[in-house]
Amino acid sequence: MDSIQPTPLTRRAALSAMGAVVAAPVVASGSAPAPVRRSVEGKVALVTGSGRNLGGSTVLELARRGADVIVNARSNREEAESIAEEARGFGVRAIALLADVGVEAQVNQMVAEGLRQMGRIDILINNAGYRTGSRFTEMTTEQWRTAAAVNFDGPFFCSRAVVPSMIANRWGRIITVSGTNSWHGQTNWAHICGSKMGAVGMTRALAVELAQYNVLVNHVVPGAYLPRPNLTGIPLGRIGLDQELANAYAFLSSEESSYITGQVLHVNGGELRV
Q: Of 1, 46, 54, 42, nearest to 158 (Cα)?
């Protein structure tokens, strides 16, 4: 996630300012928050593109649930270190490693260092993405290849690098992320949609190939998580909250999802029903 997103509270305030009806998940009046289930305790998770935004929220949720975490950013070490420091507040180990996921050598170096410091990698969330639009008739080969490098090669490089650790421990979770535009199509996004859907095919193939090692491979498709003036088409009538998406990743990262592999989970408030 490349652009800075406001916090859930700021997003809700922004929607209210636009006159939108903002619904929130229902919580019983006067009830205390449920205790956090340490559902991934003892596991090590690598989340790419997690120095901020939804990736950062996912790192913190996994840490809250007991996982040691590896924060990845392409170049902004300060942001990545900040997320890692916040994660340590949950009593887990956390490190920040820089790498461009579209560059094989950098991915291999990042994973090698993660394994050196953490000893294992059990969970990989391929969150990093390239999202710069271009009209198809004006699209350059460089733009096409950049999208493919980050959105398709990146999940391949990262998955290939971490799978040996998962096979050795006979336990693993790989989750790759796309977006609803890849499913219904979007003007100026042919390179984005194409590369993201390629990753869906890889998800399905890896789910079959790695099942014998208890490595589960799934795909998550987030819906709207940025303020927008028109909520038409979202049955729940609101955008999603970072926490709600992080909850989905945490579930698929845990033993609670032990019979789910090769699947695509849409987290979009009903906007796209597949």
A: 46
